[in-house]
Q: What sequence folds into this?
């Protein structure tokens, strides 16, 4: 009836949204599995972490486009995509540099 106010009267029309928390959890599991796989294939320190960090940064970047935009602006709209892209590029550079360097320490002068 006209006098009753249901949930629709309190919040307006409810719109369906993407379950971004689930996407992020699935992305973390997939990227974590990839990092574990890479760790089993190489014995270099830090490679697994960098693989996870790069992958999860890219998951966050893609997931950001699926989130509902807030009415309150806390940062410019371009900031987070630019931040995540720059972060992924820096970590990719670290990973490539780490993979190019020789993991063995240099020989000591008294080692023959």
A:
């Amino acid at each position: 009836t006209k006098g009753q106010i249901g949930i629709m009267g309190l919040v307006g029309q409810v719109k369906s949204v993407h379950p971004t928390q689930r996407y992020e959890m699935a992305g973390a599991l997939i990227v974590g599995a990839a990092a574990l796989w890479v760790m089993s294939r190489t014995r270099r320190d830090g490679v697994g972490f960098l693989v996870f960090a790069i992958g999860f940064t890219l998951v966050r970047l893609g997931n950001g486009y699926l989130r509902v935009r807030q009415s309150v602006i806390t940062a410019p709209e371009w900031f987070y995509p630019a931040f995540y892209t720059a972060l992924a590029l820096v970590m990719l550079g670290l990973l490539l540099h780490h993979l190019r360097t020789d993991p063995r320490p240099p020989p000591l002068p008294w080692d023959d």
Observations:
- Helices lie at 7-11, 20-41, 47-64, 79-100.
- The chain has four helices and no strands.
- Residues 54 and 88 are 5 Å apart (CA to CA).
- The first helix runs from residue 7 to 11.
